[in-house]
Amino acid sequence: MVLENDPTTAPQKLAEESSLKVYTTLLEWIKSHGGNLHENVHLSSDDQRGTHLRVKCEGVPTNTHIIKTPIATSLSYFNVIDYSVGEVQFPAHGVNFPPVFVEKVGPEEAAIFFLVGQYLREAESFWYPYFRTLPQPGSLTTLPYYQGEEDLEWLEGTSLASARQQKIALLQNKYQRSHSELRKSGSGDAEKYSWDLYLWASTIFFSRAFSAKVLSGVIPELELPEENVSVLLPFLDISNHRPLAKVEWRAGKESIDFVVLEHVGAEQEIANNYGPRNNEQLMMNYGFCLAENPCDYRTVGLRAPPGSPLQIAREQQKRLFPDSSNDAEDPYYVFSVFYPLLSPDIPMEHSIFSPALFNAVSVLAANQRELETLEVSKHEIRVSDIYENSRAAIAAISQIIIELITHIVRLRVSGPEESKQPENLKQTHAKIYRDSQIRLSETALVIAAWTLQRARLHGLQGGWDETKQLLNNHMARISPGKFPQEVQSRTQVRILERPSLLTSSGELFTLPESLALLSVEIQTPLQECLKTISTTASRRISALRGIPQEASPFRFPLFACFVIAAHTTTRHNHSLPSGQRQRASPLPPRLSQWANFLLTHYPPPPSDVAWALEDEDDEALLSEFNEVLERMRERNTDALFSNLEPFITGVQGDDDDDDDDDDDAWWLSPNWLRWAWMMTEQECVQAPEDPLALLNSDGSGSGNVMLSTETYLYIPRE
């Protein structure tokens, strides 16, 4: 299997001719045992595809049997044990292991050692024509063959670096155990079965073998093991991989047939389909990957920390559904924008971030209120999507954006310098893999940033024309030429064709945006009050010195205190006779609903007990802040607080308590301020400020991309 080689040279031309010759010899050998190649298909070879099959001028229709590989030429564990069924035999062809060895190591290892034994027989082996077409020991490109520093440099920072080490350790452990058993069994030529040959043979099986089900035409189903038995089928493994190619293998009584299930035109290549494998799987198993792999996706390493809500929920899931397959961690994936295997009704975010990933991050980002709505079913763990729970989804998107940016930067800075080019086939495929991983995260970042942008944009009507204009503006922020046109178009289609998990826009607010929700008559006095409080506190409290109002940790607690006070005033006024009622509430319906929501989930503080925060540093800061507020209230310079009294003359606690002079009823009393501090800690979202900035950097690998975040107040839509 070859997809790309170095530029063609004269020796390579000779190699291509030699490759065609050995494959022609293999074809003749296959035919001599009853096999065949369709008459309208021929062998071809070039530097891009290696030796492959190509259709002649007539083309081939759907349901055409392209290759017939005789069962007699197959190589598997059944040859190891000299198996026979009826008139069909699977001879050992001169390589006979002691039965005790086969029993000790099992079918998979026995077949690998059998392949080594046959390879050692050279021209005397029954499969010699087949072995001549295989890549030879040392020439393979799978991960264990990345050995030198120059090769390994291309894997740095990717998941393949650790996967390679794990793969080598696993294979070495298997080899040592099996080789030890071979020596113990009394085999006289055990030393010939070297590590290098074992690595080669195991790679051949991993990269070329078929499931034992291809022999179901001759071997009874009860005798076909589900696992650990693979079958090599000479010549049938010649075709290159093309994702989504429509093909199948049909088991017969005399042969295994390779059948195309689609029309293949003249001069087109006959491709195989290894399944919907991503580039990591292709690199792991076959030693190559595809620059434009529609089935590509990336596995995200996410674990549930001990004692976390996610870990507790997973344990609950196992208890509730003991028969479900929840023993392993859920698969957490980031998909390519071209990924084809999606349910037609799946939301946009889930089409890029697997539901398991998105739900898991949502649970980890959920506050205590949202965790009370946690839904644990047989197949998923998720935060309920009721009215006030979009905060968890927005927080999840924010965390995912941070992971994507971290992944992109890590790959940019860890590999070879941008100007360095691959020097061999292994490095070429490693570069393709690196580039495809970066591209995958970059396109996912565009979509995640779109969702976050919608959470930040206020006043949207949600019309189609408005959405398209916003999307055009969104895409315009990406450097021209950053993505190929096909990738950019597909990314836009993915956004437009599927509904978002966020049914509402504009739910994250800065302080100025929060103030803008209030009626015009109250905005100026409240803004002036909050600004004066912030400025005074920053002068008198060392921990706040130099912090502007827009970054003050008290900006949202102060705003929340006013909203609750104004909302309580309105409720108090409604309980009075009509003649005694004061002016209408300054709160719009959205803030009134939000205030009701807050008081429902965060009960008002007591009036007879002084609250204290659990965190000692926070409590010390709030104590200092309270002292500043008390001094300011006593002085009430320029009627700072009295200007707000017409809007908040009601009490914030019990409606039956009419003592407006009670300090506990003051809208900035110590208890209410602590209540607002704890509440806003739960209801705020920390999100990246400019996620797309990374896509406008030069990509040179400098890594000088600052990831700045902003804290926003979550106010759900009505």
TrEMBL record:
**Coiled-coil region list:** none
- Source organism superkingdom: Eukaryota
Q: Which residues form the signal peptide?
A: none
The membrane-spanning stretches of this chain are none
Q: What is this protein called?
A: SET domain-containing protein
